[in-house]
């Protein structure tokens, strides 16, 4: 069964990484997948968000930091060593016919940190801004796809990261709602009680 899943995953990897390859994707996806290129746009987006939403933006951004710290740590420090899955771009086990646009990498693959972080953010932001769900998850999906296209992850790595991210993003939001309810439960109902 595991061999069947790995074969399917390898074939799906080659479809997204090689079979649909084109010069436009080769140009944009290495750029899209590198988070360092998102620093300046991210700072601008955060500044605009804070200007428009004030206190709510600070709350959401604080929760976003918690969500990313959790998803990144769990994926990188716990799950990747636990599963020990080799990347398709690992020099000791290169997938035949693959295209490795970012070179080679020997770190573990499952789950994808990029996917877990982006889907944690997408889920958390969706909890606060439901009308923009398609934008948040669309962006996360593009980042996830880029990881396969450039040759650093198999599709199952990205799906696993996405599932982890959704669970963590939702968990952080529910934790926030729980603390709000607890705080309201124990707040005095009138000013004399204070």
Which properties best describe this structure?
194 residues, mainly alpha, Vanadium-containing Chloroperoxidase, domain 1, 7 helices, globular
Tell me about this structure.
It is built from 7 helices and no strands. The chain is mainly alpha-helical and 194 residues long. The chain has one domain (2-193): Up-down Bundle (Vanadium-containing Chloroperoxidase, domain 1).
Quick recap of the structure?
With 194 residues, the chain is an all-alpha fold. The chain has helices at residues 2-19, 23-33, 39-53, 55-83, 113-128, 133-149, 155-186.
Question: Which bin fits the share of residues in helices?
Answer: over 70%
Number of strands: 0
- The biggest beta sheet, please? none
What ranges have pLDDT less than 50 throughout 5 or more consecutive residues? Answer: none
Assess the beta-strand content as a share of residues: under 5%
What would CATH call the class?
Answer: Mainly Alpha
**Order of H and E elements:** HHHHHHH
CATH-derived topology = Vanadium-containing Chloroperoxidase, domain 1
- Using only CA atoms, what is the Rg? 20 Å
Task: Please identify the structural class as seen in this structure.
Answer: mainly alpha
How many separate structural domains? 1
What gross morphology would you assign?
A: globular
- CATH 2nd-level architecture: Up-down Bundle
Global mean pLDDT: 90
Distance linking N and C termini: 63 Å
**What's the number of helices?**
7
List the helices and strands and how they pair.
Blueprint: H1 2-19, H2 23-33, H3 39-53, H4 55-83, H5 113-128, H6 133-149, H7 155-186
Helix pairs in contact: 2-6, 3-4, 4-5, 4-7, 5-6, 5-7, 6-7
């Amino acid at each position: 069964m595991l061999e069947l899943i790995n074969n399917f995953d390898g074939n799906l990897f080659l479809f997204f990484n090689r079979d649909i390859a084109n010069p436009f994707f080769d140009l944009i996806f290495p750029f899209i997948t590198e988070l360092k290129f998102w620093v300046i746009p991210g700072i601008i987006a955060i500044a605009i968000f804070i200007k428009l939403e004030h206190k709510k933006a600070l709350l959401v951004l604080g929760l976003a930091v918690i969500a990313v710290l959790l998803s990144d740590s769990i994926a990188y420090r716990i799950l990747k060593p636990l599963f020990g899955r080799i990347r398709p771009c690992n020099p000791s086990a290169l997938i035949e016919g693959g295209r490795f646009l970012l070179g080679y990498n020997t770190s573990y693959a499952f789950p994808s940190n990029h996917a877990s972080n982006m889907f944690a953010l997408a889920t958390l932001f969706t909890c606060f801004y439901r009308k923009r769900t398609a934008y948040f998850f669309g962006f996360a999906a593009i980042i996830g796809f880029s990881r396969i296209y450039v040759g650093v992850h198999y599709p199952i790595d990205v799906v696993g990261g996405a599932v982890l991210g959704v669970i963590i993003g939702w968990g952080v939001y529910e934790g926030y709602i729980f603390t709000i309810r607890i705080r309201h439960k124990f707040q005095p109902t009138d000013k004399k009680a204070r």
